[in-house]
Amino acid sequence: MDLRQRRKLRQWLSLGVMAAAIVVVVLLALIWGGVLVLRSNAPAPVTISSVHLVIQEQNTSTGPWLGPWSINYTGAEGFPLQVAPGSTWSIVWETIINFDNVSHTISKVSPTHPFTVASTLPALPLTIPADSEGGNLAIYLAAPSTPGATYAVTVVVDALATS
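Predicted structure:
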């Protein structure tokens, strides 16, 4: 092979390497920008469109003593939320205040089917003393295992007035 043929071959090889590098950079940019999505074997997520917290103060004739009897968590609170099927996620009832002159005890939380309670933090029962702030209640729920489903969840919080 003479000198002219070698130069030509080097030029073609250089052009090929540059073209391959450009293709790789463009593909990476498309993946990073979300235009090109790599296939995943993960199941479709479960979508939680909203959460409706219902506070049932069982043995009081007046009230509400722990704030509103109903709290809706929607778009402003980060919904819709997507979680993996069967995984645990949380909703937080922030700043529970007891406006009554007796203590109130949160004894249990019950989400609508097919959700289940995984745990709460702090653990239940939780007593909020009279005329005081009881902090937050984080409710950890297990999502159903059906991939791709969308749910609006209602969580009933049972609270009893205690002396």
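Summary: The chain has a mean pLDDT of 89.
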